[in-house]
Each structure stands twice: as structure tokens, then as C-alpha cells.
């Protein structure tokens, strides 16, 4: 039976920054992969309809590039997750977990600066209890350049303990990342080709691969 | 190719307390499993020749019960590892890593009360660098009843993130544990049938199995 | 003067899971014990009037079984504490602290998965300042099976440093727990007789008792 | 070019408790120093117009005593920051960072008991990203007597690593603190002359000065 | 039955710096208190016979001032504990634990800069297992001015959670401290009257007493 | 007065891996910089006289390339520091601190895998007490590729909080690194041009520079 992978992205591009190479590799290995996008632009949050059109086209493009089996979109307001009862987010996640029955789940890191990332982590953690959604076997936190390394909270440094070889997939990850034109910037901006490549190279040298993505294993049931 | 598992035990019985069920399960799954016993009794450490005979017979019995592919014995003095240069222990471990080429390695927990456990962890960690012994893919720390839960060092609590279903193997683990007669005691002594069963039951309820062993994943390369 | 103990439960059953045995022992030792139930079911949260009747009857039964001196009920909406200003919860707690003047206080653990538990901890901590409510001499965090051990937040593992012998009270604790029929499940579900017994047995073996409850001492003034 | 220092105070008096001596010293050294007061009293929060008059006069007095270059006042409701979307607080901070272009920023500690302190830390951290406000070179957390040392959250103890000699400024710091009459109390109350002096003396003995303020360096770019 | 308290001091004066006031209070409350001095001066460590005479007279004086029931002296070489097998230190401690059968034990803090303090902590922790010395009910770590606050090890800050009111005993503690003339210095030196008083005052303001000593509870069995 | 910088390297090349760019920048800024090499090759440790000649020539070359004011060499046996009493290492460091009177000190990270790094950290920390060597104003830990990122000790991840812009010095740092021919390897080996450049690029993107070295500030007195 093919592995079922659920990648939870607070905003589109987090999935690529955090686990783009891993998604590509899992796809090559035959996994069914779903993309859960938690927030969405809307007029109430001050986005123009042009912004929103661009974003839709980015999502379509990226979806195709990865070949996701499914895309779930919750469209909660961007940068507003901390104003919602967590129970509401959990409720929406619950439907996704029930429908898709993932065995591997990717979450953003609990200590990221962005409040949306924190809420997504907490909601994901609540769904990871085995007696809620017994399909889940492994939960991993990914690192998001421009968020994870900017935490000022003492004791919050990302502690990678799980490294995925993405040597064959780094170029394509970078290609996909350029689909998010509005999110990219010039180096030393963290969401730039140079910075993404440097991180993958550094993580690779730590794990013996030409390029790697690093994760923190949160829980695995074997 | 069968998985190659190396279980590093500071003293005989640590392998059973920490990962007896997992060893049995891996064996059933076809893995090659080696037992590295780091210390040994000797007259200089105040053991009688009777003690030593009993211990030899325990080791033979346990070896047979698990069906280990190989047993490596370093025979460093018990409770004396902290007096040796770590480089010497690393040197001996290195031979084992070279010879056996493990992909999965089990270590005691760094914060155990016993100084032998700490030295073994440190030596194991030094050998886990990919550019030293590239065969290693996964390193896990196990918990040792009567050591791990007795640490008083603030910030040292064992943080399990990897749970192995040993429902089918708990009874046999308990059986094997009784081979170490001199190490067992009456409940509430931690090395007793009741305590071992209780821990496996508790770890099971955390992971959705009737019985489980819990580990802390230290590093995985995928 | 009898000891005055305040057990703060986000939801009914947390007091029993976390400190049922300790409550029974304290009662035997002559303490005055109050139960502060922070949340309540209500129609707005989607509970039927049948749910609510069952819950009321459970609370009455449990109250009688423990012989609480007082029961305080705040009836904040279940799973909604994170949507309230913490100051509002603190305000309600303040009345209880003023009225009951506890010297020993039991709180849920700060890192529990459940957002209600976190809010209750934070409100309790705010009331524990000596210059607010000078009666408080000791504050302890308890562990709640099905919440505490499911945290995925790195660095959040419960660190017990205070163990209470409940050998004589475990059976009765289990009996009381069965009053919460709707909350119990079949092992390996964490809220089951087997899991509760296993945890008490494991905590006992760590502290030299046939059964124990484990706590983290947060602050004591002697 | 003179150094530009931004002191962010959730409530008036936090700046003095946390970094009064340092402000005085920086002023003597020629720095431009701005005071950002995040909350304000208002009728809706239950303050009387007399309370508010007193507070205004305190602020004027303290402003003059320090000789702040600028005072920014956001007037969010006291003890209500946890009910606002963090994005809203960040938005207001952003204006201040843009206008004042600080190179050194002082924040309250993330783990303080007071929810207002936590929100202020999080909003400040979000503004400290170099690609947002490139002027920022150093971010430090200060300790607030009556908040920082009362945290019950395990693992939250303030870890000072940066000590400022305020030997010449302690007396004046204490003088300024008395301007906040309603906030001061009798020792052993933490906001008292004796307690403030004791902390400065203790921090001094740790760093080789007759009096010191202690900080935790969160990030510096050199 | 009177409480039996064991204060373990790596070097004479640690007991006073860390728990002088608490010893005096326990004595007043009728406890039997023993002083375990782990190291001793000797010629081999470069001490002159004059140094040693002074030290002997200090120990006699302090012993009388506290009225210790017993004084155990192991006379391991000062600043040499890290060169001994920990098992040897544990062996000597074991005799003391067996003989004196303490129920309350005071240890230096694990993260102190001084290697002797670390070894003493580790040896004490090994003896605190209930199945070794069942008399032990409570183990507390004390803070030693000039060691504890000088740790540079990230994550090592002392986390006090247990505060003892020594208001009536601070003056006498200071008096006793002056018996160690060679160890005292001029403020801001940490082992000075001003610094010791400031710390007691600060810890007092945190716990509601005019003066307090702060401890970290490591383990209690109730 | 020029700044006085002391870079403590357990082995030659640690100073370059950890702070090569920073040394070059400090030199350009006019600082006096000393290099303290703690260990040395010797025949007893199994090095050939050829090894030793190569090493001597590397040290000469590197010394000239940085233009160090002074080089202190202690020549303790490589990989043997854990067998020495720490007091002996501290004694040797003390001479250097007295002679050179540094105000800024660079240490390896406490949690590096290599036991030599740990001993050097501990000895350096002991010398950093202000009442020992009052010249010291700032102590920073550097990261050593091939050691720091390989720690398996849970809770030991390097937490950079101090970033130095080395954009103008990266190329020269890489050049100097190639002087250590025997220590370099082919990427993904961590001590390779690609890995060093990637880390500097990643640290740069975190701090807004084209290249940076990252440190953890341990203590600063201002």
C-alpha cells in the first residue's frame, strides 16, 4: 500500500521551503501526498483581488509541479489564526485527517516566529493522538527559512534529528520555489535561491548527502 | 538485505530492560542483530569467581534466547568507564562498527544516573558521525528501568518520541529478564516483573499498542 | 489547623486522573479539600441536555465519593478558554483563592496538549504570587493521562520530582474514575483501568511505593 | 552618530524596573532613547478618571527624569493584549520601528507571568527580523521584579548573560521608581526600594560592579 | 521522631553559603543535622601546614556554631574529585547514608562551575535511589554564591522552586560566614556580607519573607 | 586602547572553522589577537614525526596569515584532555589570561562531540569569573563544523545569538582553511570548502550579511 503523506502548510510556500525536496522524493517513491493549506487571502485581510488571482495561479502551478493527490484549503484569514479558538482549527483539520487518513504528517515548527505557524502546530498536535486518528504513524516538524531561524524565544532553537537526502531533488525544489515570485527576494534575504541552497548544503554535510532537508521527529509509532 | 541492528549495553540486562521486545521483534522481522556488552566483571573490581561464572551462564542463556548474530564483549571494568580516556572506549567501539556495519544503533540514555551509561552514550555518539561509519542510518536511546527514571539532574527527563509495538513480545521479554536472577528484585523494585510490565503498558497506552518500548530518536538519515 | 487543599480541574475527571489518590489520602489525613471545576458543558458548545444531565450526576457522585468541603464551578465553555482574556479567568480564580484560602494548590501541567489545561495553568500561576494570596504555600502540577503524555512540543516532557504514596488508595481511585463512564475507554486507551494502574505502578517503582502519583513541584514556601 | 535605543514597556514602570539604570547610563553616553508604552488605562478597563490623571502625571514626571527623546504610546487596554490579534500589535510596533529606527531594543522577558509581557515580547520579536527593520543591531530582554521571578512555567527561568554596570545610577533609578507611587509597596513586596536594591547588588556581585542590571541577549548583529 | 538532615558540602563554607540559614532554622526546629565535608586540604595539593591549621580551626568553630550532631569528613583532595572514579566517592557517601540514615539531603547544584561540586552532585544523586537508602525522603540542591551564578554552560541556570524563610537567621548566618576569613572578600566579591545579604533579600522578596534561601527540589517522596 | 582578543582552540583549525572570518575582521579593526592552542601532537599519542612536522608548518603558516600577536601552546595530548584533572588545564589557562589580559574570549561550544572541546570550555569558563581575571568583558562560544552539529545529546543544539558580518573575509577564511590540508575533505564532508561556505551563507541570511559567523554569547559585562 502506498504511503500516505500529509503536508500541512500555514501559507503556500511553507511546504516548499520546509519539505519541497522530501515531497518530490516521496512522490518518486510512489506515495500519495496531500497538501493542506491552512490560510487564505481574502479581501477582509486587506488583499486586493489581483493579489488573490496571483496566489491562485501560484497554487495551481505548484500543485501540478508536485503532483499532489489532493489539496485541502481551509482559507482561514492570514495572520489571524491566533484570534480563532484552536478548537475551530482542530475541527477543520479533523475532517482532513478523517478523509485522507495520513500515515506521515509534516508540521511547521512550534517555535517559529509567525503566530500562524504556532497555531497550526498546536492543531496538528491535537490531531496526532493515536486514539483520534489511528492512521498516523509519524509526525515531523520542518524548518521554514525566514521564520524558524528568527525565533528570539530562548530555548527555542530547532533541533534537527531526522535528515532526508534530497540530492536529486534540490534543483527542482528551487525551481518550484520560484513559482512564488512575490515571496522570493534577493540574497541575503532568507527566501532566496542562495539561502535555500546554502541550508540544504549545510544540512547535507551534517548527514552525508549532497543536499538534505532537516526535520525534528516529534513522534513515531513503529 | 536484512537490517543490521547493534544493541549497545553497558552491562548485560540493559539490552533487555531497554529494548528486549524490540530485539525480539526485529529478529522475527529477519534482522541481523549484534549485542555489544561494554563492561565485564573481573576480580580487580571485587567480583568473586562465582559471580563471574553466574554472569557467564546468564550471558550464554540470553544470547541463545535472542538468537544474536554476534556478541562483542569489551570487558572494561564495571563502574569504571569514567576513569578511562573516552578515546580508548571509542577505539574499541570503532572496531565493532567497522566489523558489523550496523544501520540501526541502540544506546543507553545520556542522562542515566550510572556513569557507565554516560560514557557508553558519549562513545556511541562519537561513532555515529556519518563520515566515520557511513552504515549507520538511525540512532536511538533506550530507557533503562532503575537508571533512567532516577536522574536528579534538572532538565534530564527522558523524552520518548519513538514507540515500538511489542505486544507480541512482552511475555518473552519478561521471561528473558528472569535469566538475570541477581539483578531482579521484588516490586516496587524497578527491575521486577510488575514494574517492567507497568512501563510497557504505560508506553503502550501512549502509542496505541497493548505493550510498547519507548525510545528517543537521536538521529536518522533517510 | 487542617491543611487546605485546592484541586483545580479544567474538566471533571482531571482531578481524579491527576490526583485522585492524593485527594483520598489528604482527606484521610484530615485536610479540607476544595474542587475547582473551570469549565462546564452548555448548549452553545454543542452539548445536549442529556449530556449535561449525565455530567451533573457524575459530578454529584464524585463529589460525594471524595467528600470535598467545597466545589467551585466556573462553567466557562469547554475547549473555549483560549478565546477568553486570561484576566477574566484570573478574576474568577481570585474569588476562589480569596474565599477558600488554600495552602496547597494542584494545577494541570503547562504543556498539556489541551488548550484549556494551558489557560488554567496560566491563570493559576498568576494567583500563586505570594503578595496576591499569601495563604498559598505549595503549588504542584499533576499529570493527566491522555493529555500530558501526548504533547509534541519539543522540550515539554513532564518532569516529576514529587511522588505521593497512594498504595492504599489506588483501588478507590479506579472506582471513582469509573463514575466518568463517558470518558473511559478500552485499553490501550489512556483513560482505562489498565493504563491508570500501569502509570501508578510505574510511578510507584520510581519512588518505592506499591502505587504513586507523580507531580512536578512548581513552588514551595517553607 | 549617537546610538538609538528603544525601550519597550508593556506598562509604565517596566522600563524603570527592567532597565532604569541602563537608560540613565545610555543617556549620559549621549544616546537617543525612546520609550514605547504599549498599554494605557482606560475607562473600559475599569480605571477611574482619577487613576488616569495620576498615571498621566507619573508618565510626564518619569519622561522628564529620563530625558527621553520620544515617547510612543499605543494605549492598548491593560491586561488585554492577549485578546488582540498579534498582527495588530505588530502593526503598531512597525510604525515605531520605522519612525525611530532603533539600533538597540529592550524587550520584557518572554516567560514573565503577565500575559501583556508575553504579547509584547512576541510582537517585538516579529519586528526584530533584519529584513523588516534593518536598523536593529541588538535585542535584549530585561527582568521585571514582580513578574519575571514569579514564573511557574518549568524551564522558564531568566538566564542573564549581559550585565550593565549601573553603580553610578542606582540611586537615581530608585528615585525615579518612587514616582510610581501606586506601584510600590513595602518590602518584601518585590516592587520596593529594598528588593530593587538587593537585585542590583546581587547582579553586581555576579559581574564585578557595585550595582548592575542583568539582561538576556537575544540577538546581536555585529 | 526528629528530622534527620544531611548537608553535603564539597568544601567547608559551601554549607553556609548554600543553606546556613536553613540549617539554623532546622536546628531550632529540633532536627538532627549532619555535615558531610567531601574534600580536605593536604600537602599533596599544595597547602601549607598553616593553611591546614587555619582550616581545622574554622571547621571546629563552625561545627560548634551550628551544633551539628555529626561531622563526616572524607578528605578527598580539593579540586581533584574529577580525577577519581565516581564509584569511589559513591562508596564513601554510602557509608554516611547507611550510618546517618538522613531523610532530607542537601546537595550543591549540578551545573556549578566547580568540578568538585559536579562530582558531589553525581555521587549524591546515585545515593538518592530509594532502593539504596530508603530513609531519604527529600533531596534539594542549594546555590553557592561565587559558583552557581558563574556557570557559562547554556541551559544551566539555577531554577529555584523551594524557598525557606530565614528571616530570623540571616544575621547569624552572616556571622558564621565570617568564620571563613580566608574565603571572604570585599564586595562586589560574591563571598561578601553585602552579596550574601542581597541574595537573601532578593530570594525573600520572591517568596514573601524578609530573607530566604532558595533551593531546587530534585525529588521528594511523600 | 586596542581590543585584546583571545581565541582558544582545542586543536589547530578550530580557530579557523569557528571564527576565522571574525579574527580577520578584528585584525583589520586593529585588535591584538592571541591564539591559544590547547593540545599538541606527540609521539606518545601515536603521531609520527612526519605528522608533527606537517603540523608545525601548518601552524606557522596560519599564524602568519592571521598575524596573531601571540601564540600560546600548551601541548596537552590530543584526545586526552578528559584524562587530566581540569585544575591542571585551568592552571595553564590562568597563565595565559594573566599574561595576555584579554577582554574578548572565544571558546568552543560546551556540547561539541569531542571531549577535548568540552574540557576546554570548562577550563575557559572557570577563568571567566570576573574576580579571577577582571580584564574579560565578553565570552563567546563558536561552532566547529564536524563537531558542533554532530552532538546527539538531547537539548544540546547550538543556539546562535550573536552574528558577525564576515562578507569581506570569507574568501580569505577559506584560503586559510586550506592550509590544514590533512583536515579537509571532499564535500559533503563538513570540513570542506562547500560546507564552510554554505554555513557562512546560511548564517548570513539569518543576520542580513552576505556571509556571517554565528556565536552564542555566554557572558558580557558592559
Counting helices, strands and paired strands, the structural category of chain A is alpha/beta
User: What is the overall shape of chain A?
Assistant: globular
**Succession of helices and strands of chain A:** EHEHEHEHEEHHE
Mean pLDDT across every amino acid position of chain A: 95
Query: Radius of gyration of chain A in whole Å, from Cα?
Result: 16 Å
Count of extended strands of chain A: 7
| Largest sheet, spatial ordering of strands of chain A | 3-2-1-4-5-7-6
- Major sheet details of chain A: 7 strands, mixed
Measured as a percent range, the helix fraction of chain A is 25-40%
Strand content of chain A: 15-25%
Residue runs with pLDDT of under 50 for 5 or more positions of chain A: none
Amino acid at each position: 500500500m502506498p504511503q500516505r503523506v500529509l503536508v500541512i502548510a500555514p501559507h503556500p510556500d511553507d511546504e516548499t521551503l520546509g519539505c519541497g525536496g522530501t515531497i518530490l522524493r516521496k512522490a518518486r517513491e510512489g506515495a500519495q501526498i496531500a497538501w493542506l493549506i491552512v490560510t487564505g487571502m481574502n479581501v477582509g485581510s486587506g488583499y486586493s483581488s489581483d493579489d488573490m488571482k496571483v496566489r491562485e495561479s501560484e497554487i495551481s502551478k505548484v500543485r501540478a509541479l508536485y503532483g499532489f493527490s489532493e489539496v485541502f484549503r481551509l482559507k482561514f484569514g492570514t495572520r489571524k489564526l491566533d484570534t480563532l479558538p484552536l478548537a475551530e482549527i482542530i475541527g477543520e483539520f479533523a475532517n482532513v485527517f478523517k478523509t485522507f487518513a495520513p500515515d506521515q504528517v509534516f508540521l511547521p515548527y512550534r517555535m517559529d516566529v509567525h503566530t500562524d505557524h504556532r497555531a497550526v502546530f498546536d492543531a496538528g498536535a491535537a490531531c496526532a493522538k493515536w486514539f483520534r486518528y489511528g492512521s498516523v504513524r509519524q509526525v515531523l516538524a520542518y524548518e521554514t527559512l525566514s521564520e524558524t531561524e528568527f525565533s528570539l524565544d530562548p530555548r527555542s532553537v530547532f533541533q534537527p534529528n531526522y535528515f532526508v537526502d534530497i540530492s536529486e531533488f534540490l534543483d527542482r525544489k528551487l525551481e518550484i520555489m520560484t513559482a512564488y515570485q512575490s515571496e522570493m527576494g534577493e540574497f541575503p534575504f532568507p527566501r532566496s535561491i542562495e539561502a535555500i541552497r546554502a541550508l540544504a548544503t549545510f544540512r547535507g554535510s551534517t548527514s552525508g548527502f549532497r543536499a538534505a532537508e532537516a526535520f525534528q521527529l516529534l513522534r513515531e509509532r513503529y
